[in-house]
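Backbones bend. Shown next:

***
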Amino acid sequence: MTLDVTYGESWDPVSRTVSGPMSRQRAAARDAAGEQYAVVLREEGHPQPAAVLHVAWAQGYFGIWAYDDRGRRTREIDLRRLEPGELFLRHLAQWRYDTDDMAEFAAEAGRILTDLHPDGRGRKVCEPKGVRGGSMHTLPDVPENQRRVPAPEFGDWGRAVALATDGRPTGPLRETPTPETGGDRDTGTTATPVPSWRPPAPMRPHHLAWTFTPGTRFSPPYDGPVGPYIVGDVVDAGPLRLPTGRVVACDPGWDSPVEPFTVTVPPGEYRVEVAMAAYASEYEGAHIRLEDYTAARVLVCEKPTETWELALRPGEDPRTLRDGEFYGFGVDTGTGCFVDAAAAERLTGRQDTIPDDDLPDGILVLDDPRSGGNLIAYPSGLGDGTYPVWIGRAGDGEVTCLVADMLILHGRELLP
């Protein structure tokens, strides 16, 4: 059966129409400029789409959503352009609806999630219908020739349709003339609907400078009779000696080697600060004050920070991150640290690398006479987990600082 092709901002499932329809010429211009647009493919005479393509080449993103005849999404395919002319399969999600009246993404629908990474790592999670909280985790079974596919040229949507329908035969594609009504987002008018989708957005830092500013108020950690977070002491943890300038952030109790970040700093000594914030609460009728370690930073220079980027290790590609994701260092002992790569092997993974309660401010400093470097360890906020490190840069590109964000204040709002 023929598939009709229509271009627009997005698909409106309520009205079953293309939102912000646009001509082929305007969609092609968006494609060439890397700007986002959508491609809706419908079987001839059918109100629901067979598939909707979301394209945003500036972010290297090509997304496919497959639909059933009741307008429910049944498959998500997240592809990334990491190499010219090639798409990498980053994520595949599939849902199974056993009844016609089952809601889209219902909890009782069977679901299979597959995540892949360019270095060969991956995971497949099966959540059978009717198993509450149960799931099975295995290695992905996606063949190698399906992990990387050619990137389509504009208008050549046949391969995308095949991926959306799991290879089900379809007929020819027919691009239908599309009347453009309303305004034009490209020319600055506002009548064109805002797209209902956006490319995946990895985690971005929030309020890092304010995290180290005493007296700053943030929204409370949860609803109830609690006060706001208030930034208190910023602990001077002393100088971090970096004989090579290759910085490692890790759990100091781990005995497995951790690679340094790809961004280096000039060898030298740099002050480390650990930020803390407290909030007032009640427990069994008594007022109490609770304090958390919220972040630690290495101050590299005095220039103001103008931009932030995620600190990466070799092999980590930010273009593969999905919504809210980040690369970070794992913590299993409730402790994080900064250390030079030349000293990391000798100073981490030892029994004495975990600060005890008797240490001032919970800070531990260990020296490595052989390299001349040292390790500065600090409590990791709420404990075990994974935490990002952000690199600050001045306007001229010079590194100003590295901040290990414990994510306690990440979701909080600044208060007056």
Remarks:
- The longest helix spans residues 24-33.
- Residues 135 and 264 are 41 Å apart (CA to CA).
